[in-house]
Amino acid sequence: MLAAATDDCLAALLAGAGQDWSRPARDLDWTCRATLDHLALGLTGYTGLLVARPRDRYVTLFASLDPQAPVPACLEGLRIAASLLASTVRDTPPGVRAWHPWGHSDPAGFAAMGITELVVHTYDITRALGVAWTPPDGLAAAVLGRLFPDAPRGHGPADTLLWCTGRVPLPGLPRRAEWQWDGGVR
Predict the structure, then answer these.
(1) Cα dihedral across residues 33, 81, 119, 132: positive or negative
(2) Could you tell me if 135 and 90 are in contact, meaning their C-beta atoms sit under 8 angstroms apart?
Protein backbone atom coordinates (compact mmCIF):
# COMPACT_ATOMS: atom_id res chain seq x y z
CA MET A 1 0.00 0.00 0.00
CA LEU A 2 2.92 2.34 0.63
CA ALA A 3 3.97 2.08 -3.03
CA ALA A 4 0.41 2.85 -4.18
CA ALA A 5 0.23 5.85 -1.84
CA THR A 6 3.57 7.08 -3.13
CA ASP A 7 2.52 6.79 -6.77
CA ASP A 8 -0.80 8.52 -6.18
CA CYS A 9 0.69 11.34 -4.12
CA LEU A 10 3.61 11.95 -6.45
CA ALA A 11 1.28 12.19 -9.45
CA ALA A 12 -0.83 14.78 -7.64
CA LEU A 13 2.24 16.75 -6.53
CA LEU A 14 3.74 16.65 -10.02
CA ALA A 15 0.53 18.19 -11.36
CA GLY A 16 1.36 21.27 -9.28
CA ALA A 17 5.11 21.31 -9.96
CA GLY A 18 4.90 24.53 -11.99
CA GLN A 19 3.12 26.46 -9.24
CA ASP A 20 4.63 28.70 -6.55
CA TRP A 21 5.92 26.30 -3.87
CA SER A 22 6.99 29.16 -1.61
CA ARG A 23 3.38 29.75 -0.53
CA PRO A 24 2.14 28.23 2.75
CA ALA A 25 0.93 24.64 2.52
CA ARG A 26 -2.74 25.04 3.36
CA ASP A 27 -3.01 25.87 7.09
CA LEU A 28 0.54 24.87 8.00
CA ASP A 29 3.34 27.20 9.09
CA TRP A 30 5.51 25.61 6.41
CA THR A 31 5.71 26.44 2.74
CA CYS A 32 4.78 23.80 0.19
CA ARG A 33 8.50 23.27 -0.43
CA ALA A 34 9.27 22.91 3.31
CA THR A 35 6.37 20.46 3.65
CA LEU A 36 7.87 18.35 0.88
CA ASP A 37 11.18 18.35 2.75
CA HIS A 38 9.33 17.35 5.95
CA LEU A 39 7.91 14.37 4.06
CA ALA A 40 11.34 13.18 2.91
CA LEU A 41 12.73 13.64 6.42
CA GLY A 42 9.81 11.76 8.00
CA LEU A 43 9.90 8.78 5.65
CA THR A 44 13.66 8.47 6.01
CA GLY A 45 13.34 8.82 9.77
CA TYR A 46 10.76 6.03 9.96
CA THR A 47 13.15 3.87 7.94
CA GLY A 48 15.94 4.65 10.40
CA LEU A 49 13.74 3.81 13.38
CA LEU A 50 12.89 0.40 11.91
CA VAL A 51 16.53 -0.33 11.14
CA ALA A 52 18.02 0.91 14.45
CA ARG A 53 15.05 -0.20 16.63
CA PRO A 54 15.63 2.25 19.48
CA ARG A 55 13.52 1.90 22.60
CA ASP A 56 13.32 5.53 23.68
CA ARG A 57 14.50 8.06 21.08
CA TYR A 58 14.70 9.23 17.52
CA VAL A 59 17.67 8.12 15.47
CA THR A 60 20.32 10.60 14.36
CA LEU A 61 19.80 10.12 10.62
CA PHE A 62 18.31 13.16 8.93
CA ALA A 63 17.63 13.48 5.22
CA SER A 64 16.58 16.56 3.35
CA LEU A 65 15.97 17.56 -0.23
CA ASP A 66 18.38 19.85 -2.08
CA PRO A 67 16.93 23.34 -1.55
CA GLN A 68 18.21 24.39 -4.99
CA ALA A 69 16.73 21.44 -6.89
CA PRO A 70 13.61 21.91 -9.01
CA VAL A 71 10.38 20.44 -7.67
CA PRO A 72 10.35 17.42 -10.04
CA ALA A 73 13.82 16.44 -8.78
CA CYS A 74 12.62 16.82 -5.20
CA LEU A 75 9.70 14.54 -5.99
CA GLU A 76 12.26 11.98 -7.16
CA GLY A 77 13.92 12.35 -3.74
CA LEU A 78 10.57 11.78 -2.06
CA ARG A 79 10.09 8.61 -4.14
CA ILE A 80 13.51 7.42 -2.95
CA ALA A 81 12.62 8.05 0.71
CA ALA A 82 9.29 6.22 0.30
CA SER A 83 11.02 3.31 -1.46
CA LEU A 84 13.54 3.01 1.37
CA LEU A 85 10.70 2.83 3.89
CA ALA A 86 8.73 0.32 1.79
CA SER A 87 11.78 -1.94 1.41
CA THR A 88 12.56 -1.75 5.10
CA VAL A 89 8.95 -2.54 6.04
CA ARG A 90 8.97 -5.52 3.65
CA ASP A 91 12.28 -6.87 4.97
CA THR A 92 11.67 -6.34 8.69
CA PRO A 93 10.12 -9.25 10.61
CA PRO A 94 6.61 -8.43 11.87
CA GLY A 95 7.61 -9.02 15.50
CA VAL A 96 10.11 -6.14 15.45
CA ARG A 97 9.20 -3.07 17.50
CA ALA A 98 10.73 0.41 17.36
CA TRP A 99 10.13 3.61 19.27
CA HIS A 100 7.94 6.43 18.03
CA PRO A 101 6.72 9.21 20.33
CA TRP A 102 3.12 8.26 19.52
CA GLY A 103 3.56 4.58 20.32
CA HIS A 104 6.13 1.82 19.87
CA SER A 105 5.27 0.25 16.56
CA ASP A 106 5.86 -2.63 14.19
CA PRO A 107 6.68 -2.52 10.47
CA ALA A 108 2.99 -2.33 9.49
CA GLY A 109 2.54 0.59 11.86
CA PHE A 110 5.47 2.46 10.34
CA ALA A 111 4.04 1.82 6.87
CA ALA A 112 0.72 3.29 8.04
CA MET A 113 2.56 6.30 9.49
CA GLY A 114 4.34 6.81 6.17
CA ILE A 115 1.08 6.59 4.24
CA THR A 116 -0.59 9.03 6.62
CA GLU A 117 2.25 11.53 6.23
CA LEU A 118 2.15 11.18 2.45
CA VAL A 119 -1.58 11.61 2.03
CA VAL A 120 -2.23 14.39 4.54
CA HIS A 121 0.72 16.49 3.41
CA THR A 122 -0.10 15.88 -0.25
CA TYR A 123 -3.55 17.17 0.64
CA ASP A 124 -2.01 20.24 2.31
CA ILE A 125 0.24 20.99 -0.67
CA THR A 126 -2.31 20.34 -3.40
CA ARG A 127 -4.88 22.54 -1.66
CA ALA A 128 -2.36 25.39 -1.54
CA LEU A 129 -1.40 24.90 -5.20
CA GLY A 130 -4.98 24.67 -6.47
CA VAL A 131 -4.69 21.02 -7.52
CA ALA A 132 -7.87 19.02 -6.87
CA TRP A 133 -6.85 15.90 -4.93
CA THR A 134 -8.23 13.91 -2.02
CA PRO A 135 -6.70 10.84 -0.36
CA PRO A 136 -8.03 7.63 -1.91
CA ASP A 137 -10.61 5.97 0.34
CA GLY A 138 -8.79 2.62 0.29
CA LEU A 139 -5.57 4.12 1.64
CA ALA A 140 -7.46 6.22 4.17
CA ALA A 141 -9.45 3.22 5.43
CA ALA A 142 -6.28 1.17 5.93
CA VAL A 143 -4.52 3.79 8.03
CA LEU A 144 -7.64 4.67 10.01
CA GLY A 145 -7.93 1.07 11.13
CA ARG A 146 -4.28 0.93 12.15
CA LEU A 147 -3.54 4.37 13.63
CA PHE A 148 -6.89 5.90 14.58
CA PRO A 149 -8.88 3.17 16.37
CA ASP A 150 -11.25 5.75 17.88
CA ALA A 151 -12.08 7.43 14.56
CA PRO A 152 -15.75 8.36 14.23
CA ARG A 153 -17.89 6.03 12.14
CA GLY A 154 -20.42 6.85 9.47
CA HIS A 155 -18.29 9.11 7.27
CA GLY A 156 -16.20 8.42 4.19
CA PRO A 157 -12.68 7.16 4.95
CA ALA A 158 -10.86 10.10 3.31
CA ASP A 159 -12.98 12.68 5.13
CA THR A 160 -12.53 10.79 8.40
CA LEU A 161 -8.75 10.66 8.00
CA LEU A 162 -8.65 14.37 7.18
CA TRP A 163 -10.75 15.02 10.30
CA CYS A 164 -8.55 12.79 12.47
CA THR A 165 -5.49 14.77 11.35
CA GLY A 166 -7.05 18.17 11.93
CA ARG A 167 -7.62 19.13 8.29
CA VAL A 168 -11.41 19.34 7.98
CA PRO A 169 -14.56 19.31 10.10
CA LEU A 170 -17.09 16.49 9.78
CA PRO A 171 -20.85 16.91 10.04
CA GLY A 172 -21.53 17.41 13.74
CA LEU A 173 -17.79 17.41 14.59
CA PRO A 174 -15.70 20.58 14.51
CA ARG A 175 -12.24 20.56 13.00
CA ARG A 176 -9.70 19.23 15.50
CA ALA A 177 -7.17 21.73 16.84
CA GLU A 178 -4.87 19.00 18.20
CA TRP A 179 -4.43 15.39 17.22
CA GLN A 180 -2.07 12.42 17.16
CA TRP A 181 -2.25 8.83 16.04
CA ASP A 182 -1.80 5.74 18.15
CA GLY A 183 1.14 3.81 16.70
CA GLY A 184 0.98 1.07 19.31
CA VAL A 185 0.49 -2.49 18.15
CA ARG A 186 -2.97 -3.89 18.83
Answers:
(1) positive
(2) no
